[in-house]
Amino acid sequence: MTAIDRGDYSRSYPYEDSPQSIGWGATISAPHMHAYALEKLRDYLKPGMRALDIGSGSGYLTACMAHMVGAEGLVVGIEHIRELVELSERNVAKQHADWLTAGRIKFVTGDGRKGFPEDGPYDCIHVGAAAPKKPTELLDQLKAPGRMFIPVGSMSQHIMIYDKEPDGTVHEKKWLGVQYVPLTNEDEQREYGF
């Protein structure tokens, strides 16, 4: 996280340990949540690995992940709001335009609930919004072995860590109580601001 300046990714209070609005009904998560995610995923963000960042927002965590996977790796950030994809690309280009042109980092517009199988399978998947239940469609895009970090639940949410073993079996661990915005579609986010 010290290698990627959060100030390039948040217009207001980038270093405050709280979520900040980035527009279009979205926020950049608090730094401690990004640190938790990177800590839990670090063994799956080694040089040359592939990662998927769902709900990539301003692109900050996507860039942190790209720093970790190195020049031979790939991180795909997916957002359903086109303006957020464009914002992410502008933010990354401030210090690391070469990562975009070299294909180390890629942002796409799409429904994160469906993942992005075109560049999968992934060593790890990070989800920055809460799924209502176990995300089986996303687990299908995870390598074996692989790990997913995702908030799950509606009223009561927890970070769930899903580990896919080399034989394809999936183990889950309820880790931390949280409150995230729900995984949704573009129309709902634009209309209701979540």
From TrEMBL:
<keyword id="KW-0963">Cytoplasm</keyword>
<protein>
    <recommendedName>
        <fullName>Protein-L-isoaspartate O-methyltransferase</fullName>
        <ecNumber>2.1.1.77</ecNumber>
    </recommendedName>
</protein>
<keyword id="KW-0489">Methyltransferase</keyword>
<dbReference type="GO" id="GO:0032259">
    <property type="term" value="P:methylation"/>
</dbReference>
<dbReference type="GO" id="GO:0005737">
    <property type="term" value="C:cytoplasm"/>
</dbReference>
<dbReference type="InterPro" id="IPR029063">
    <property type="entry name" value="SAM-dependent_MTases_sf"/>
</dbReference>
<keyword id="KW-0808">Transferase</keyword>
<dbReference type="InterPro" id="IPR000682">
    <property type="entry name" value="PCMT"/>
</dbReference>
<keyword id="KW-0949">S-adenosyl-L-methionine</keyword>
<dbReference type="GO" id="GO:0004719">
    <property type="term" value="F:protein-L-isoaspartate (D-aspartate) O-methyltransferase activity"/>
</dbReference>
<comment type="similarity">
    <text>Belongs to the methyltransferase superfamily. L-isoaspartyl/D-aspartyl protein methyltransferase family.</text>
</comment>
<dbReference type="Pfam" id="PF01135">
    <property type="entry name" value="PCMT"/>
</dbReference>
